[in-house]
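fwd from M.: "can u put these together and see what the complex looks like"

so here's what she sent:
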Amino acid sequence: MGLLSDPSRRKVLTGLLTRLNTPICIVCYLAGIVWFMGLAFEPFTLRTYMSENAMGSTMVLLRGAIMMLVCFCSGMPVEWLVKAMQSRGLEVFTQSFSRKLPFPDENKERYMVRGTNVYGILRAPRAPRTEALVISAPCSPGDSNNQAVGLLLALAQYFRNQVYWAKDIIFLVNEHDLMGTQAWLEAYHHTNITGMEYSPLQGRAGSIQAALSLELSSDVITSLDLILEGLNGQLPNLDLANLFYAFCQKLGVLCTIQGKLQRNDWDTAEGYTHAAQTMMLMVLKQACGRSWGDHGLFLRYHIEAASVRGINSFRHYKTDAATIGRLLEGMVRKLNNLLERLHQSYFFYLLPSLSRFVSIGCYMLAFGLLVVILLLRALDLWVHLGAPALAAPSGPGVLTVLTPVVISHLTGVALYLLPVHLQEMAVEHFPVSETEAVVLTAVAIYTAGLALPHNTQRLLSGEGTEQGWKVLKLTALLYLAVLLGCTALINFSLGFILAVTLVPITASMTPHMPKALSALVMVLLSPAFTVLYCVFIYQELIEAPVSVSEGWMLFLSVISQGILDHALYGSLVYPLLALFIYPCWLMFWNILFWS
Amino acid sequence: MAAPLTLLLIVAVTIRAVLFRSSWAELISERVEVVSPLNAWKRVVEGLALLDLGVSPYSGDVFHETPFMIYLFHFVVDYAEIVFMVTDGITAVALYLSIQTYNKNVFRKQKYALESDRYPADCLELLRSPKEMFYIPLKVAMFYLLNPFTILSCVAKSTCGLNNAIIALFILCTLKGSALLSGILLALATYQSIYPLTLFAPALLFFLQRLYIPVNLRRSSFWFFTLQYAFIYVGSLVVITGLSFFLLGSWDFIPSVYGFIFSVPDLTPNIGLFWYFFAEMFEHFRLFFICVFQINVFFYTIPLSIKLKEHPVFLIFMQIAIISIFKSYPTVGDVALYMAFLPAWSHLYRFLRNIFLVSCVLLACSALFPVLWHLWIYAGSANSNFYYAITLLFNFGQVKSLNLISHFT
């Protein structure tokens, strides 16, 4: 580090840094945003390609003559399914599971959930039973997924007569969508990470290599939608998406992602906005950390999985079930040829369209530019503080810095624990349902945190010094940078969205700014409002814009879903926001009101 | 100073007790950054079970602790948590007393030097006053006890805590001037893991300095004392090894413990540099690279002893740091031991030029270790290269910080 060790050069460098700090930060921020939006611009993206050798070189002749079955699921006809699968020559087993949710789920209207999964195993005729593929169809009450179960049974019948299977195929019909899948996967892998009660599986088929989840609601389909986003923003290997798209093109089936068709006119404004909207939808869906299809829970067990949803929009060209059967047959045959798990292609990517992708090497730079702002500010503060304020500040100095940190984190812990634990008490005293109690308690604790600085300043005997808030800001900036970095590594979209709103306010926050205005800006860019904006933007992007009151109700339901996802499936978004991001924001709020 | 120290001990014990009772204890004791095949508690329990069955605990290549350790835990396994908390307390108190003694020595030397007018005028701002130095031992104890690395190591019940206690007691005895106890404790520390062998040179230099024997290879007084100290050290080592033989009735422990440390057969990822290299190395180069890596740990003793012979305590600190970076199975408990010494030289921090960058790197790496482990092992999206990159960066940060601190002399 010659440049940094030579004192005169070092002084020049630090002088440059402190003088030009704000302009560099602004340039970095704008560059980060522009870079991110530019990712959707087609010349900056790469064409998708098949990376896995075993999937590219095999020719698959599709001969599917599949007779579609129509099935009406009202509830889960367990005996009928068992008989149907048995008559098709599968080894059929059932699994029952039950779970009491921490509070009633108002979107799906369930609280005490009991269900049964039915699955049939098609054993590979001449292969050792070491590997398996899963095709699943969630069976919900009513007829929202009846066609998928019928397709599953038809596929089972067709597959039974073929001799080329090298892996066992498991046909899974799960009840209560994600909960059934979670119970089945936990039983299959002998884990219990979410506290669900389930009966052990009687039949097993070896290590699962890949999985497909089908959602078909009507027998006439105009396009197939591919859903990739899984739990905690995890994505399947890009090869799976490429495979699906390749088959759709081969069979002439319309294929969409995020419900949007591809366009070819990337050089026009509409073409670009279309791609940008697709990418933004993917980012928003990935950031919320919930699994957008049953496949999302498979990803945690290192099983590449995707969901396929049939959409019936009003077009002329309709695809019949036989073509879909051939498509699925082709996909399963290709997956059958895999020698090892899909690992060649990217695990971290963004898709502005199905044939174009952005890899982590490209999009991480946008995030890096945002985090560099925090580091530059921290460096600037360090230079201003003069070096040795780190290791041994004097007695009262440590306390004035440590107190806001401890209190912010305690508030975060309260935000995480209290809403669910205090719901009975809240329901007794207020005329609200349990779900509303939980959500409103969370909002109340969040708002109560805003009152903290006034209380803590009164508790502290020594008054805050100029140095005090600088040390606190330095610690908080570094903490936020490390936090956002770790978040972006696991779930890039969540990290990026939080960075976009948190970095400007945290980098520029000082106690000397006009209090009322900066307080307003800080609140408007706080994590809760970020979630609110994301809800509105998401509704705009799926072309179902909502009014303010509807948006607010949607926001409250998003909070309750977040807490439920965390309790039921282990989603990390709610704990991250409550235990780390919110305390970090509170520390900056404390700095703003540093007297 | 007893009251603040007691308060600190109470706070530290409370934190550890709370963590022991929570569900995190299980999680922490499986983290590879905190436990290694040499000092994992699971392996101690396994060894004790084998011993109870009458089989040699070293059969099966699971257990790699010394016989003294297994017999110690044979008696106290039911109180294991208390033992580890007490060990941390002993280490902290030993460090506290050693730094107190060190400060007294330094202050005395400074007073004599001031009186004989040996300081140039512009050095006066570096002179330490008793008031400044009053809180330093407490800060050292605090740095050790409240360091997250130490807490994690204690909650995981890693025997690294015991090794740290022996080294801290060795430093205390050396600074107090008792050559006999220092030799015995150094022998015990070497017996536990071979690397403290390199601490022989700084201890010897300290005693020579204390007894005013000049370090001159031609003087008989130098050789006389060296031979005495070496005799105590080697003698205790022989006695301890012999006792171990009689405890278990066989020499099994030598290949299992020392052979294991030297030949690195287990390539579980950890925060050290060995595992990745040896995972991808061809067999016929393995012996050569083992030798190179192991010599690397011991080699720095020679130039550092020559350069730092006037500052043996600083040399002890540098040696401990080098051991914990370059040893074959480092864990965060080893890092915590040398980090505890940093407040002893707090008056020189203004000369640490890039300390901000280096500490940011170390902090970020500590946070990224579990994230990249999760991405590699659980999510399957990353691979060993990502984890080793963070390991490399962490060790680079440590080496860089050592580099900066060595500017103190």
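replying to her w this: The radius of gyration of chain A is 27 Å.
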